[in-house]
Amino acid sequence: MTEDSSRGLSDLRSVADGASLYYLGTIVVNIVGFLLNLLLTRVLGASVYGIYAYGTMILAAVLPFANLGSDISITRYLSANKDDTAYQQRMLGLAYLTTLAISGVVAAALFVAAPTINAYTLEEALFTTAMQAFAIALPFQALTQVAASTMRGLERPPEKTVIMVVGPALQLIAIAAAIVVGYSLLGVAAAFSVAAIMAALFAISYSLVRADLRPAAGYSKEEVKEFYNFSAPLTLSQAASFLFKRVDVFMVGIFLASADVGIYNIAVLLAGVIAMPLAGFNQFFPPVASRLYANEEYDTLQSIYATVTRWSITASVIVALPLFIYRTEVLAIFGPEFVAGTAVIALFVAAQLFNAAAGPANDVLMMTDHQYVVMGNHFVFGLANVGLNYVFILEFGLIGAAMATAGTLASLNALRVLQVWYLEGLFAYSLEIWKPIAAAAVASVVMYSLHLSFDGLILAIGGGALGVGAFLATLYLLGIDEEDRRIADEYLGMVPDR
């Protein structure tokens, strides 16, 4: 094995290590999230659940402003400066100071603006107080992000995964306890904030104990300028990303009823599970990409980019097929009201597959100093999504919001792939992509055929399991790519000799 090949395999191991642990953690988080949303929809109903979903969506929308992009910046500066501990500690101190100051201001503004937001959107009596309770959680969520990104930047998947899992688990426990003792929406909102405080205290203390770094001051004017020159565009980029990712929920709340918000939100959350594999790879691909780009190891970066994209497509299709084919049965679990979201979930499954097919293209752009391109993408497509949502919601109702946002997301991801190819000469695809496509076709036939004999929850669970089995078996019979086999043989120990 050549030296370059060996280094490439080592970097792929780093990404695979982070992705596998993150994937396991995300499975736990999604199970916890599923149980939480199932509990809330069954107890609160579609209308009151819609108020909860709307409040948490607004919280997620303002979160990028709360740390001014410090979470992403710290990932870059920790990973690219492993040999300069003093520099790392100054950057970590700047990240925490920025987050603490900005998040407090944003949370206070959100608290004060809650009545106005309610007046222009849901016009529900319970929303204002609930939104104010959610606002209290904002600084603590922002600090938790910085703690998690510290572990990400240091390329420590186990610690990052622990932080990722603890927060949602505390949230489920706190909210379930509130419901058990008889509280409704306002008690749930208060429990949400208590869980956020507990999660932040754990994440910060845990990250400081596990890392060999301590936040420090003494950063120079040049270091501050460098930090904010990277983080400020990312803040605007993340804020703009809200326009094409979640503005649809916001506008559904403006033009439709709170029950529609609840139905729409469940469909979006379920389709979001398809993004799990790519999110896993993206947790530890950026530090690797940043390091390779800084060291001018472009051939290795090309190889890893293409491999991770292929992995993303393969793993995402496994999740997407059962959700698309059995979408009615899955939505019925949350209650009969939520079956109205079947068309919404179908559109978002398609959009998420486009997202998976783009692989880590967005992270490649960011880690190769094209953060302004990323910001421009988000603003242009975000504004387009706002306009399309306005027109389509008024014309088609709930399904119109899905048409607008799914179309925007698919178009943006196609453009990202082309931009990476044009700007950096990196292309994400190879002829090997036909194998997961063929495996998906076989699995689809298996799952659709089960409709003839089964229905309900049994069909969703049993059919999904058989479909995934058929997909994996077909993929194995078609032959595993040599690079994947090397990773599996030398790192995971999973693939037997044939």
TrEMBL record:
<feature type="transmembrane region" description="Helical">
    <location>
        <begin position="304"/>
        <end position="326"/>
    </location>
</feature>
<keyword id="KW-1003">Cell membrane</keyword>
<feature type="transmembrane region" description="Helical">
    <location>
        <begin position="189"/>
        <end position="209"/>
    </location>
</feature>
<feature type="transmembrane region" description="Helical">
    <location>
        <begin position="125"/>
        <end position="149"/>
    </location>
</feature>
<dbReference type="Pfam" id="PF01943">
    <property type="entry name" value="Polysacc_synt"/>
</dbReference>
<dbReference type="GO" id="GO:0005886">
    <property type="term" value="C:plasma membrane"/>
</dbReference>
<feature type="transmembrane region" description="Helical">
    <location>
        <begin position="338"/>
        <end position="358"/>
    </location>
</feature>
<feature type="transmembrane region" description="Helical">
    <location>
        <begin position="457"/>
        <end position="478"/>
    </location>
</feature>
<keyword id="KW-0472">Membrane</keyword>
<feature type="transmembrane region" description="Helical">
    <location>
        <begin position="390"/>
        <end position="412"/>
    </location>
</feature>
<feature type="transmembrane region" description="Helical">
    <location>
        <begin position="433"/>
        <end position="451"/>
    </location>
</feature>
<dbReference type="InterPro" id="IPR050833">
    <property type="entry name" value="Poly_Biosynth_Transport"/>
</dbReference>
<feature type="transmembrane region" description="Helical">
    <location>
        <begin position="261"/>
        <end position="284"/>
    </location>
</feature>
<protein>
    <submittedName>
        <fullName>Membrane protein involved in the export of O-antigen and teichoic acid</fullName>
    </submittedName>
</protein>
<feature type="transmembrane region" description="Helical">
    <location>
        <begin position="51"/>
        <end position="70"/>
    </location>
</feature>
<keyword id="KW-0812">Transmembrane</keyword>
<feature type="transmembrane region" description="Helical">
    <location>
        <begin position="161"/>
        <end position="183"/>
    </location>
</feature>
<dbReference type="InterPro" id="IPR002797">
    <property type="entry name" value="Polysacc_synth"/>
</dbReference>
<feature type="transmembrane region" description="Helical">
    <location>
        <begin position="91"/>
        <end position="113"/>
    </location>
</feature>
<feature type="transmembrane region" description="Helical">
    <location>
        <begin position="21"/>
        <end position="39"/>
    </location>
</feature>
<keyword id="KW-1133">Transmembrane helix</keyword>
